[in-house]
Amino acid sequence: xANSIKIRARAKGNAVTVKALIKHPMETGLxxxxxTGKVIPALFIQEVTCKANGKQVLLAEWGPAVxxxxxxxxxxxxxxxxxxxLSWVDxxxxxxSAEVKVK
Amino acid sequence: MQRRTFLKxxxxxxxxxxxxxxxxxxPRMVLAAWPKAAFEAKSVDDALSSLFGSADNTPSGDIKxxxxxxxxxxxxxxxxxxxxxxxxxxxxxxxxxxGTPLSANFKLDAGTQAMxxxxxxxxxxxDVVAVIKANGKLYSARKNVKVTIGGCGG
Lengths: 103, 154
Hints:
The complex is a heterodimer. Chain A has one domain: Immunoglobulins (Immunoglobulin-like), CATH 2.60.40.10. Chain A is 0% helix and 52% strand. Chain A has no helices and seven strands. In chain A, the strands form two sheets. Chain A has a four-stranded antiparallel sheet, with no helix packed on it. A three-stranded antiparallel sheet of chain A has the order 1-2-5, with no helix packed on it. The radius of gyration of chain A is 16 Å and the shape is elongated. Chain A starts with a strand and ends with a strand. Chain B is an alpha+beta fold. Chain B folds into two domains: 31 residues, no CATH class; 114 residues, Immunoglobulin-like (Sandwich), CATH 2.60.40. Chain B is 29% helix and 38% strand. Chain B has three helices and nine strands. In chain B, strands 1, 3, 5, 6, 8 and 9 form a six-stranded mixed sheet that branches. A three-stranded antiparallel sheet of chain B has the order 2-4-7, with no helix packed on it. The longest helix of chain B has 31 residues. Chain B is globular and about 75 Å long. The relative contact order of chain B is 0.19. Classes of the chains: A mainly beta, B alpha+beta. The interface between A and B is medium-sized, with 32 and 37 residues.
């Protein structure tokens, strides 16, 4: 699951706004495959951790009701040049992370 | 000599296996913290008590929910929750009539602003409820979102 995250962090005043898009199917486990009639197993992101300069700023806990290819935006008090790191883990243990410098 | 190399390689092999095992443990430990019961709860109150230990919440005008009045596609409903309150450390987004209402829960650390935006799935027309935990108390706000399935506009 490499490169599943698109992330941007922009500073305005002393606030940094982070916007991220994650590529993930977010299957609820309730949908059926139209061809085979079998239930598609659940596959969704459970935790997204966001760190700024190594310190956690946001922990998102998600259920299957978050849309496919999830979008996440939030803001924290920070400045230009800080490193923002975002990582996710899904219910099958797959994970990915991305890092970006605040612009 | 051959026996010796054989032993060496098996030892190296088992060391790798141990490392892999240890590596696999990390995601499992992370997942253990995920509030499974809250996400599987079938009612808003059950989800809240499971998540926060109590379902008592006070409606508050200081919470803003930005969501469309009419969502044409229930699979993608953009929701932004923000608040002017101080000391917010938790924001939960709930779609009240979904089979399992709790959609997402955000834990904020000090220095993180009380604003999160994401997109959620909604099964049918219902209220989107935002529950904020600030200074140990629960506050809530709700906004009705109409979901049109398979139509264009309403």
